[in-house]
Structure formats: structure tokens, C-alpha cells
Design goal:
This protein has four helices and five strands, in the order ααβαβββαβ. The radius of gyration is 24 Å and the shape is rod-shaped. 49% of the residues lie in helices and 15% in strands. The strands form two sheets. It has a three-stranded antiparallel beta sheet with strand order 1-3-4. It has one domain. Helix 1 crosses helix 2. The protein has 156 residues and is an alpha+beta fold.
Length: 156
């Protein structure tokens, strides 16, 4: 009496494992991609939140410094918009830590570049509006531009 598996039984197991891999690998990759996108969206909202706090404070302290004055002028309609860098938000305490960028293409880079990551602040007559973009590529490039706004650590 022989013990072991026949060649056909081994091939069947290998084929079944291959089918499982073909189904599960794309699902896992999509889950990772969706997770990165969700984290990116949360980080952008965090940056906008810092700009929102700055804008709210500027309404009440418009005479304190130039940055507050510019935002106040946007609210009053004297300026169409103003732009604030991530670095300014961090230096003034509106964001207290480095903001990771999960969409960075370079595996070594993991933070938004504080010098080139900008927030455009507008006022629509009722509310402030915020758009985050890469200053090197312009606001029209949106998320694509922010994928290139990467560095190893704050200050780059």
C-alpha cells in the first residue's frame, strides 16, 4: 500500500490555491488603496481644520498681524483670496505636528511638504472655503499635485 498523494491531487491543490490567490490579491490591494485614500482625505480635512481655526481667529484679531489682516480682507471682500502654507499653520500652532501624506509615490517620503503645501482661503459671503494644493504645481492640479508634495520630515 502506497502512502502519499498522486500528481493529479497535488496539481488540483495548486490550482485551487492559485484561484484563491487570483481572487484575494486584488481585493487586498484595493482595500489598501481605499485605506490610503481615506487617510489622505482625513489629512486634508485636518489641514483645512487648521486653516478654519486660523480664519475664525482672524475675524476677532484682524489688527494683530498681517496674516490675520489678509484673511479679514478676504472676508470683507477687499481680497478675492489669500494663501497660507502648511508651515505657517504649524509655526503658529494651528497644526501641532507633521501631516503624513499616504499618497506619496516615493516609499521613503511620508509627509506633506510644509513649504509647498498651501491652503487657499476664500469667502463666499457666508462661509470660508478652503482648498489644499501644491504651490509648485498650482491649485488646478488638486490631488495629483499633492502626491508630489512629499518629504522625509518637516522642513524637508
Amino acid at each position: 500500500m502506497k502512502k502519499g498523494f498522486t500528481l493529479i491531487e497535488l496539481l488540483a491543490v495548486i490550482i485551487i490555491l492559485g484561484i484563491i490567490a487570483l481572487v484575494s490579491v486584488p481585493i487586498a490591494l484595493n482595500t489598501i488603496k481605499d485605506g490610503k485614500q481615506d487617510m489622505y482625505d482625513e489629512q486634508i480635512e485636518l489641514i483645512k481644520s487648521g486653516a478654519r481655526t486660523l480664519s475664525s481667529e482672524a475675524i476677532y484679531k484682524s489688527n494683530k498681524n498681517t496674516l490675520f489682516q489678509e484673511i479679514y480682507k478676504v472676508m470683507k471682500g477687499e481680497l478675492a483670496e489669500t494663501n497660507v502654507s502648511l508651515k505657517i499653520l504649524q509655526e503658529n500652532g494651528y497644526l501641532n505636528y507633521e501631516i503624513s501624506n499616504p499618497l506619496c509615490n516615493d516609499s521613503k517620503s511620508k509627509y506633506f511638504d510644509p513649504e509647498t503645501t498651501m491652503v487657499q482661503i476664500k469667502y463666499n459671503g457666508k462661509d470660508f472655503e478652503f482648498e489644499v494644493y501644491n504651490s509648485n504645481l498650482g491649485i488646478s492640479r488638486g490631488k495629483e499635485g499633492l502626491e508630489n508634495s512629499c518629504c522625509l520630515a518637516s522642513g524637508c
